Amino acid sequence: MKTILGTGIQEGLLLKPVRYPWAYDLYNQAVANTWFPHEVQLGEDLADFKRMTAEERHALTFLMSYFNPNELLVNKALAYGVYPYLNAAETHLYLAKQMWEEANHVMAFEYVLETFPIDRHQAYQAHVDEPSMAAKEEFEVRYIRRMTEQPLDIGTTEGKRDFVRNLVAYNIVLEGIWFYSGFMVALSFRQRNLLRNFASLIDWIVRDESLHLKFGINLILTVLDENPDLRTETFAVEIKQMILDGVAMEERYNRDLLPRGILGMNAEYINSYVKYLADRRLEELGFGPHYKVANPAKWMAAANDTLELVNFFESINTSYEVDVRADGRGP
């Protein structure tokens, strides 16, 4: 039986019949979501920026320092670690659109740096100089580097494990936890009637990222469903530990992001949200929640949530859908 994994150049040259409707549907949603940064009148937020505290400006600069290079890092993960190992045309269509979206996000963050009086060199250099930020980046690079050093042999169990590890590193940890943690901080300014246009820009990015997350989780579950050799207790424990390690790194990063806190928010508050997010991602992969914390930012519940939960190493259901929960359970 043909599976979603494959490296043949002549495979995946016909779109119909579609084998993975979820990928085709996500591609069409992504196309419908197309937007451009300069559609937002970001200059209208300049007055807000000028009256923000030093801690608030630091937080915004810190976010830009992290988001900008890491959107490009996601594209490397897709180009080297995902696209070459899939053989369904609909997955290639979606990944091509996702890679364009990541580039569009980079341009959106460049627009922020162009508009606000932020020291661009300082912002760029922070992802190297700030230990907590550099540690997160090295975590991602560790998995992407494996894809660039030599091609994966996805005919082997270990090769398929490396494929899934990369997906978990960039899609679950980076996009599904770290990015959403940053989005919450970015959108918190609007909660205090600051940077409303900047928040609109973030809203559009979140809309894209919700689809990226849906695609990645569907892809992980499909690979596990089609490859029973991956569904072992040992591999499941390893994957869970990757996510827990990601939480620990994010906690350190958030203490540098808000060393003294800002009005209505401090590092402990953000880290409670990080743990909540991690539990949601663990549940989406079929694990039980680890931290068992309530959502401290129920105002973020407008972002998407899953309906279908599956077990990481049992039968896989790839009908991954989203919903806005009445109980305030967020992304």
Structural commentary:
One of its GO terms (biological process) is deoxyribonucleotide biosynthetic process. The chain has helices at residues 21-32, 46-51, 54-81, 89-115, 120-129, 131-149, 157-191, 196-226, 233-257, 267-284; strands at 305-306, 322-323. By secondary structure, the protein is mainly α. It has a single domain (21-323), classed as Ribonucleotide Reductase, subunit A. The two termini are 35 Å apart.
Low-pLDDT segments, ≥5 res: 303-310, 314-328
Query: What does the average pLDDT come to?
Result: 86
Number of domains: 1
Q: Sheet bearing the most strands, described?
A: 2 strands, antiparallel
Measured on Cα atoms, how large is the radius of gyration?
19 Å
DSSP strand tally: 2
Broad shape: globular
CATH architecture verdict: Orthogonal Bundle
Span of the ends, CA to CA? 35 Å
Strand percentage, roughly? under 5%
The helix tally amounts to: 10
Cofactor: Fe cation
Function: Provides the precursors necessary for DNA synthesis. Catalyzes the biosynthesis of deoxyribonucleotides from the corresponding ribonucleotides.
Catalytic activity: a 2'-deoxyribonucleoside 5'-diphosphate + [thioredoxin]-disulfide + H2O = a ribonucleoside 5'-diphosphate + [thioredoxin]-dithiol
GO molecular function, one term: metal ion binding
